[in-house]
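Why do we care about 3D structure at all? Because function follows from shape, and shape follows, mostly, from sequence. That is the central idea of this module. The next example makes it concrete: a single protein chain, its amino acid sequence, and then its structure expressed as tokens.
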Amino acid sequence: MAGNPRKIVLAYSGGLDTSVILKWLQETYKADMVAYIADIGQGEELEPARKKAEATGASAVYVDDLREEFVRDFVFPAMQANAIYEGLYLLGTSVARPLIAKGQIETLRKEGADAVSHGATGKGNDQVRFELTYLALEPNVSIIAPWREPAWDLTSRTKMIEYAKKHGIEIPASQEKPYSMDRNLLHLSFEGGVLEDPWAEPPKEMFKLTVDPADAPDNAAYVEIGFEAGTPTTVDGEALSPAELLARLNAVAGEHGVGRVDIVENRFVGMKSRGVYETPGGTLLYAAHRAVESLTMDREVMLARDQLSPKIAQLMYNGFWYAPELEALMAFVRKSQEHVTGVARLKLYKGHCAVVGRKAEKGLYDERISTFEEDAGAYHQADATGFIRLNALRLRVRKQAGLDG
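And the structure:
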């Protein structure tokens, strides 16, 4: 049991877990409960969650609109770093949790509360992401993680539902689904239940943000995304705020079935876990950003950034958003983006996203040099002879010395 807190700020979603936890914390600690709801793109889920928190016993409910901050300060930097965890996952949950935790700490200070709490289990990544952020921002804060508390005995879905019914807590219809979901502007994630069998195909009706590629329109769609210094600013020539831009891309990509990923990933706590993700707009952003970089980024800078990308993705996945090593790596990423300005054109067709054009006013691509036609002396092909022989020198010496195995 954690101390005797007077007031607890709970990261609240309105789902079964956090609703039960709100009531359990209230009963167990006899504390005032503050429900903290971060609006990072859940849409129609927010108002029902606010009402439910009040009905469940929260003395105060905060609904913070963090959509612009989420996309501007968390989604875009991850994209600029080309941060993709284990080659496929675009970190939709990973980059959201530190922002939610930051909001909780700010609310704790406003409310004069003395503890924070979350609904993450002792098996997952989210407990780490929440708590690393809490402690980085408020080193001496008291943290209550119910799933790890000795007094917590609601260790199954059945027990939680029974507890909810006993205390008059509404059970969302979504809880009847054989999997769990988590949504924000970047993605919708699915895990648990029927998905725990890595051989089982996800139910067709499960997906919410993307149509089945087989049912997508028979005609391809084209979309142009403009960047300024690595930051997405326009869609089809129209300037949009970060959240508006991602929402626009989610709609067009989802209509064409783009952005589904089904993976078995390595959790930070040590186990493997199967996750299914819909990241429609994010898939377009990563593809378009890379296309503009191909015109504007120096080869060695790109190589250095790409070598850092897996480490950055790992740090973000594991919850080290506010760690000094990530701050240092992201400083390099920001520097690398200074000249990434241009437009990429994407073609969307039945689940596929292809780059079909890219342009930049100040790019490094020089057609006079690259052309297979007459180059008017822009490139002297005879120069390649010395270049090749110098690069081959160590190989020749090795062979001549009989050290080539």
